[in-house]
Amino acid sequence: MIDKANMLKPALIHDYLTEAAKQHGDKPFIICGSKHVSFQEMDDISTSLAFQLLDRGIRPQDKVAVLLDNSAETVVALYAISKAAGTFVIINSTVKAGKLNYILNNSDAKILITHTAKARIVLQAIDVCEEKPSVIWVTPTGTIPPALKTAMVSYNWNELTSQEKAVASVSLPRADEKDLAALIYTSGSTGQPKGVMQPHHKMINVAQSIIHYLENDHDDVILNVLSLSFGYGLYQVLMAAIFGGTVVLEKGFVYLHDTLRKISEHCVTALPVVPTVLAMMLKLQGIEEYDFSSLKYITNAGAALPVRYTRQLRKLIPHVKIYPMYGLTECVRTCYLKPEFIDERPDSVGFEIPNCKVWIADENGHETGPDEVGELVVTGANVMDGYYKDPELTAQVFRPGPLPEQVHLYTGDFFRRDKDGFLYFVSRKGDMIKTRGERVSPLEVENLLLQIDGISETAVIGVPDEIFGQVVKAFVVLNEGYPLTDQQILKSCSETMENYMVPKYIEIVEALPKTPNGKIDKKQLKKREELNP
After folding, report:
1. 150 band by pLDDT with thresholds 50, 70 and 90
2. Are 13 and 203 in contact (CB under 8 A)?
3. CA 36, 332, 346: angle at the middle one, nearest 5?
4. 246: which strand partners?
5. Among the four 78, 331, 349, 418, which has the fewest Cβ within 10 Å?
6. Please, what sign has the CA dihedral across residues 513, 516, 522, 526?
7. Which of the four pLDDT bands, split at 50, 70 and 90, describes residue 293?
8. What is the rounded distance in angstroms from the CA atom of residue 76 to the CA atom of residue 43?
9. Alpha carbon of 176 to those of 61, 109, 181, 317: distances in Å?
10. Using one digit for the tens of pLDDT, what is the confidence trace for 415-458?
């Protein structure tokens, strides 16, 4: 006899939310401040909003943009859009009007879901849109200001998410598993962001691969301080829905003490971070007084994890597993280091994730040998579908492989693989410094600089030089109370680095520029150097 209950297996990202609601019901899925939203509530509210999106003209594969802080409403919106067979576009909440206008135009967004607190930027952006999207306003007062109602086609979030609005007799449309679930915008080489096309089946595959190697289960509680517009942050929510865990969602990592207290308050087991978050955390006075006993693992992605940070973490919380990882929006995750190798190879990002293969190409496109540096090339179920409305760039980066439907993603990142097969990130292609006939990895210099007592953060770039073509320049942030001078730092560098690696310039700064996703923004540093050579 056929088991009809198992005939339709989860194939779309919202299917996992519905399954989790059946299995876990009243268990908290999203905790955001004082708001606790269970799996069942999230499933019900997102279904209600999905019907309302359909009533407002959303059709399969239409794009719906979401401009909100990390919040329960953001999670409701992404699942509602998915249930309506649309494609969600989550935009970083710190976006300016110009970039917002570009993303709305480029994505062909039919609706924008946003907060009334962002009205000024939204009005500026939409005023010059080619096709003006209608707006669903999240408002703390429950009513939309009259000026916003008259300025554009507007709807009230509170009314649209009322559970009574759901029409049970009408079926929601169903997307195909190869349809786009999301457009995730990432910084582009031309200065404009590019929308990475992420279909349902690939997002599910990579999320399941990560869950597999992290060994997640329904008892896990993730503390997420990363923006949901950032793939790394978004996948924390998608993964938790798959394995039935809870996400404690924070708007950021500004209020360190409050955020760290939530680890013990909510029995947090998982903490995904980027290096800048760790830098802030590790230099916090009294960090050793916090209760980290519930924590099982810390993951790092977005940028290479400095060896010094790894060693400090091992000393601070020796019971916690540390997973250095590497990935791009174009493939989400590519490789990770198993925790048992963290002391032996703290600078490695390990091996490929399940369902993924990589190789390293030299300048002629041939595979490199052990410890030879080349460009990392990725193939597998984690490689996404290219860039929205940019076939030329897609053809450059996503190249056909030897087998039908096989795609090789050329990452633009330099890597090497040692004789034992471990992978090591070396540099972004454009960041590699060529000086004195040698190639210098900024990451290698940064790791050595961070070994100097008193240095908390650093960024290394190449700057023009009449004699050597390029020389090394290091920007350094000092720990409070360490009166290091640039000459003292240079002296330490000369003792630990080969001559061609030693920075010619050291600039001590109060802070380094950061991207909205918390990564050090070297583009800003390079631009500043160009303007002030």
Report:
1. confident
2. yes
3. 95
4. 221
5. 418
6. negative
7. very high
8. 8
9. 10, 20, 10, 44
10. 999 999 999 999 888 788 988 777 888 988 998 999 999 999 99
The pLDDT tens digits of the residues spanning 394-426 come to 999 999 987 777 899 999 999 999 999 999 999
* CA–CA gap between residue 364 and residue 396 (Å, rounded): 15
Give the contacts of 357 (CB within 8 A, at least 6 positions apart).
Answer: 378, 379, 380
Residue 5 · residue 23 · CB < 8 Å: no
Contact 234, 90 (CB under 8 A): yes
Q: Which segments of 369-509 are extended strands (E)?
A: 374-380, 398-400, 407-417, 423-428, 433-435, 438-440, 455-465, 469-478, 505-508
Distance CA 277, CA 461 (A): 21
3-state secondary structure of 375: strand
> When comparing pLDDT for 496 and 377, which is higher?
377
Tell me the whole-structure pTM to 2 decimals. Answer: 0.88
Quickly state the pLDDT bin for 505 (edges 50, 70, 90).
Answer: very high
The residue with tokens 């908390």 is 456
Q: Give the integer Cα–Cα distance in Å for 119 and 108.
A: 20
Q: Which amino acid is at 180?
A: L
Residue 254: pLDDT above 80?
A: no
* 32 compared with 431, residue with greater pLDDT: 32
Residue 181 has pLDDT above 60, yes or no: yes
Whether 151 has a pLDDT exceeding 80, the answer reads no
Least confident of 2-6, 91-95, 441-445: 2-6
Residues 526, 533: Cα–Cα separation, whole Å: 10
| 471 contacts 462 by C-beta, under 8 angstroms | yes
Q: Is 227 helix (H, G, I), strand (E, B) or coil?
A: coil
Task: Give the residue among 426, 441, 387, 389 at the shortest CA–CA distance from 409.
Answer: 387
CA dihedral (396, 400, 402, 407) in degrees, to 10, reads 110
In angstroms, the Cα distances linking 85 to 65, 171, 181 are 14, 12, 8
Find the radius of gyration of the CA atoms of the chain: 24
CB 32 within 8 A of CB 71: yes
What is residue 4's predicted lDDT score, i.e. its pLDDT? 44
Beta-bridged to residue 438, according to DSSP, are 435
164 pLDDT higher than 70: no
What DSSP assignment string belongs to 20-76? Answer: HHHHHTTSEEEEETTEEEEHHHHHHHHHHHHHHHHHTT--TT-EEEEE--SSHHHHH
Here the tokens at position 367 are: 């595979």
Question: Does the structure show a pLDDT above 50 at 22?
Answer: yes
CA distance 227 to 225: 7
